[in-house]
Every structure is written in structure tokens, then in C-alpha cells.
Amino acid sequence: MKENILGLLNQIFKTSLMVVIFATLLLFWNLTTEFYDTPKFLILIIFIGIGLIVTTLRFALSEKVFFIQTPLDLPLILLLLAGIVSTIFSSAPFGSLLGHASRIHTSLAAIISYVLFYFLLTQNLKNLKDVKILINFLLIGAVLASVVSLLSYTGLKLLPSPWVHGTNFTPTGSSFTTTAILAMLLPFPLIGLLTARQRQDLVLNFLAVTIFGVTIALTGTGATYLAAVLAVSLTSLILKPSLGSSRTFLQQPGPALLGASLVLVGLILTLSFVPPIGKAQNPLYNLAKSFPREPQLGLVGSWKIAISTFRDSPIWGSGPSTFMFDFNSYKPVRLNQTKFWDIRFDSAFNEYLQTLATLGGLGITALLLLTAFYMSTLYRTISVAINNHYRLGLAVSGLLFLIVIGLHAATLAVWVVGLTVLACFMILSLESKSKAVSAVFSKITGSLEMVKLDILPSSLFIVVSALVLAAFYSGGKLALADFHHRQALNADTQNKAIDAYNRLVIAEKLNPQSDLYRIGLAQTSFALASALIQAKGPTETSPAGSLTDQDKINIQQLLSQAVNEGKMAVSLSPKNPVNWEILANIYRQISGVAQNALAFSLDAYGKAILLDPLNPQLRLSAGGIYYAGKNYDMAVRLFTDAINLKPDFANGYYNLSVALRDKGDLKAAIGAAERALVLIDKNSQDFEVANSLLNDLRSQTQTATSSGQLGVPTAKEEGPLQQEKLPKVLDLPKPENIASPPAVKR
């Protein structure tokens, strides 16, 4: 009876693991705020809960508690401790716990999940047969993800939903993630192709290698290109001695098919980068040229940001999921000269710099130890691994995982697949030469180590089960809150503001610690008040408007809620400049119905600038408020700051010209307008706007026309809640101080 139950538990674990593998590679939906990582993470959490219960129940039935040790246990435990300590000292602990803006990867919850996932694999994978089944499922899922990516690349619409119609759509969530996983798994079909003797095996492995290679060639990045090249080189180099002499090696069907596959992939890669000559047609080049590549923060910039953060917090870093805050604080000003100047990066160039910044010395030590311990195990066991093709594939795949995260910041799917590979390799590398790993469940063999604990197995099962149930309950509430937030976003896109408001209220009740929900409710409350004013407020035909006393009460309540929710968002995540910027914009937009609103707006913009000091757009917005208040000196200073931060900022020069004109400095205004004109495309409407301003300045007129994208972002009467003749329904006390950022030196 006991053996039957143990067998059933083992089957439950294996089935759940296969679900996780397929979910990691193929699952996506539009039921949560984030479409890719969130559903994968939810499945991972469910598997971990099931795995913990299965493992501790097996202990209870066996009446003993034992854990298999691997060389990677210590680094992973240290990484977990670093994440916990870093979260405690984080400026936004809840965001560090669950991630900012629904990005779960890099959060403490993700770190805990990764570590538990690894330990569950090493405790429950018993033998080479289990590993083979797991790797085969990985390969099947990778092939399916690769095929979907290639079909999307060609423009084929696989599903009716518009959000999956992009040429860079892939079920893993990003082209880097898909191609990184393909590069990591490439050694397995390579080994199968080079060693296969059956025609069926040759064909299947040839197709897998070719599909992987073409997907990487068309949608990959520099990191995945290099990983793929190393996969082919290392695998061929290691296998060659065991396959005979060079002449014999080349005469075998496997190497010949590999050569044909590489030629095909190389030809496709060449055609995708080489433009057609003359009137020749090259659809691959057109597809590659229009393919949206994912931006990656450069190595030098990442190093400067990471080392600056490490300097200020050397032990525990800034906290999990806080790299965007580090980026805002320490980014090099030269980034403003690139096409990514308006992007706030939330990940570094690679995983090591990301860890250095967010988890500090503790975290980077753990990650470096993980790398070193794996390399040490690889060095000790590579000679044995050559005799087992799955072990050899795992050895090379694990090395490729470490190379990939050294060249690019990882994602949830990359970590799950990478840890799966590492766990499988560690189990097989610790197997004795004469006995399978399953023997460890009866006695210790070879170099395999096991730790026995003198605790009551049934007590451990009860405690773990209670913790899992509590985690499922809390996680269920958070997942439900995220579902309602997604429904609110959907309602907002359909102009159903009331439905969006009600959904956000529910989401906030379920998860009151989320600044994302708070700031969303603030914006929606403002939108509802704005719509009410627009419908019943004063107009040219009806100067008195038709606002009733109840309407005024509703507007007051909505605007109070907008302000209070915005303030709560910045208190929950005080280092997030996005929240401060949105709060500042809300204050600016309600200047017609709230006393001192512009002063609060300036204070919020000032705090946003202090957190993101090299952002020219924030300076431009703050300068616009000073311009509206006729404080031309401060407006000129902030507009000048904006162009000092970004010398090719056409809108900055345009605004500076307008402010200088109204200040009375026509000569300087003309110079700024001329500079703006040089930076604007001559075929755009903005060029006509800037040219009109320049002509007016030259003729010493005091008027200017604005349209298109160029315009002064002032607090003048633009929105329905900015008209001065509106009744003041919101009483804001005058702020004691206004945050004023220092001027930027050229």
C-alpha cells in the first residue's frame, strides 16, 4: 500500500513538472496585467506547492527526512538570503517582494520560487529515465515555440486577438527569451544528429537543429547568436574524438546533415542582413528590417549604474525589482543622445550587473559562487559525461545558460529552463559509476551526499501543508486583484470609465499595497471628474454650465480620491518617478477647480526630477508650469536644463524660444527657434510650426502658432478642469516647500 502511494506521489510530481515545462514555453493569456510571465509564474507557484506537499508526504510515509545535496545548494541559499535581506532594506519592500508594474521576475517572490524549484527537482528526479523524459518535453515545447515564432515572423496571424499579431510575437514573451532557450537546448538535437544511426532519428534531429537555427538567425540577439555558435562548436569538438578520425567523422550521415543545416541557416542569416542588388527582390531582408528588436541597455551604462548603486549600498543593494530606480538615479547622460533616451530600463545588460545593483555584495557573491561551483563540477565530470549523451547535453547546456545570462539579463522562462538543466546535470553528475541515482533513496552511493534530519516527518508535512495553503490563499487574492486590474485596463481602452473605476476599486481592496493599482485609480477618478465637467461645465454657449450641487459633490469626491490615491502611490513606492510624474500631471490638470494645485504640481515634478535627474522631458513639463505662471526666468532655466541634457531636443528649443520671447529677449529667442528648426524634419507639420514662430520673432511680433507635437506643456486652459472660471471644489493647502532641482551645467 505504501509503495503504491509513493508511486502515485511520484507520478503526480512528474505530471505537474511536465505542465510547468509546457507552460514556461507556451502559456500566455490576456487575463492578467502582464500576458506572459504572470501566467507562467502562477503555474510555477502551483507546481511548487504541489511539489512541497508531495515531497514532505513522502518523508512522512518513509518515516525519515532526507535531502540530497548538490554543489549548487549553498549559492542558491545565499542568493535567497540576499534577496530577503535586500527586500527588508528596500525603499519599496512590497514592490521588491512581488515586483514593480506586474513584472514578477527579479522580485523576491521569483527568487524564492526559483530556489524551491531547483531543490524540488534535485529531491524528486530519481534516475536517467526521469531526466530523459524531462529533456524530451523541453525539446518538444521548444520546437513548438520556435515554430510559432517563425510563423509570426512571416506575418501569419495564428490567433484572432490583435495583441498576438505582431511579427515579434512569441509564446515565451520575448524574442530573446525564445532564442536564448533554443540556444541552451541546441546541444541535445546536435548530439542526436551527430550520433544517430536510425533514419528517423537523423531526420527528427536535423529538423530540430534547422528550426532552432533559423529561429535564432532571424529573431535572435548578439547574446543568442554567440550562444548558438558555441553550442555547435563545443558539442562538435567534444564529440569528435568519440566518433572516430576526422575522415570517418565527416563521412558519417550526421555531420553531413549538420553541415547542410548550418549552410541553410547561414544562407538565411545572410539574406536577412544583405540588401537586394538592383531590382532583385529579397523578402527576408524586408522582414528583418521591419522586425522590432527589443532594446537592451549597454554594457558600459549598466556597469556605471550597477557600480554606483553598489557604492551607495554595497551589502544588500537597492532591493529586488528596483533596477529601474537605479537606472533613473545613475544613468549616464550620453544615453540622452541615443534613440532610447525616453526609455526607463528596468534591467541591466546582464544578470550579473543586475544582481550587483539590486542584491549588492551578497547577491553577486551568490551568483558568482553558483557559476564557479557549476564550472568546478563540469570540469570534474566532463570526461564521464562524454560517455552519456544526455549528460553531455546537460553539461554544455548548463554552460550555455551561464554564458547567456552573462551577455543579457535573464527572464523568468530562461531561469526556469536554466535551473532545470542545472538540476538535471547535478543529479546525473553525482551518480555513481555503477548505480543509478535512484539508489540514493535506499542508501548513499559514490560521491552523492545526503543530509538526514532528526525531525518528525509528519510534523514537517503538516507545517509545510499549512504554509502552502496560506500561500495559495494569499496568492489567489493577489492573482484575482491582478485579474480585475486587467479588466479595468480593457474597460479603459473601450472608453468605459465607470467599469474601469469599479474594477480598480475591487483590485485595490484585494491588494491595497500595489502602487500600480493606486495610480491607476487616481487617473481613472480624474478622468471621470474631467468627463463630468466636460459634459456639464461652462462653455461659450452656456457660460454658467449645468452643474448641479450633486455634480459638484461628485467632482469633489472624485478629485479628492484622485489626489489621495496618487499620494498613496508615491508613499508606497517613493523612488518611482513615474508615480510622481502622474501625480504632478493630475495636480496640473485640476488647476481650475483646486487652489494651489500648480504649486503641488511643481513640488511633485521637482521630486520626480530629483529621482530622475537626467530626464529632459520632466524639466520641460516643470518649465511649462512656470511659464504659465509668467515666471519666465524659471521657465527659461528649466527649458535650458532640458536642452543641456539633450542637445538635440527640438521641443526643448521651441519652448525655450517661446519663453525667451515673452521674457523680452528676442535675440536669444531667435537663436533657439533657429536651432529647433534645424532639428526638425522639413516634411513634418512641426517644421511649419517652428518656422512660423521664427518668422514671427524676426518680424518682432508677439504671437506664435502651435500645433502638431511641438507645443508648450503649460498649465494654461487646455483641459476641462483647468478653466479659471470653474468653481473651486477642492481646497488644497499651500505647500510649505516646493522641491526645486539644481540647474544642469552644460
- The geometry reads as globular
Largest sheet: 2 strands, antiparallel
Multimeric organization: single chain
Helix content: 55-70%
Which runs of at least 5 residues are low in confidence (pLDDT < 50)? 432-448, 702-708
In the sheet with the most strands, the strands line up as 1-2
How many helices? 29
Any overview of this molecule?
- Helix 10 packs antiparallel against helix 17 and helix 17 packs antiparallel against helix 18.
- Helices cover 67% and strands 1% of the residues.
- The longest helix is centred in the middle third of the chain and has 37 residues.
- The protein is globular, with a radius of gyration of 30 Å.
- It has 29 helices and two strands.
Task: List descriptors.
single chain, 746 residues, mainly alpha, Serine Threonine Protein Phosphatase 5, Tetratricopeptide repeat, two-stranded antiparallel sheet, 29 helices, 67% helix
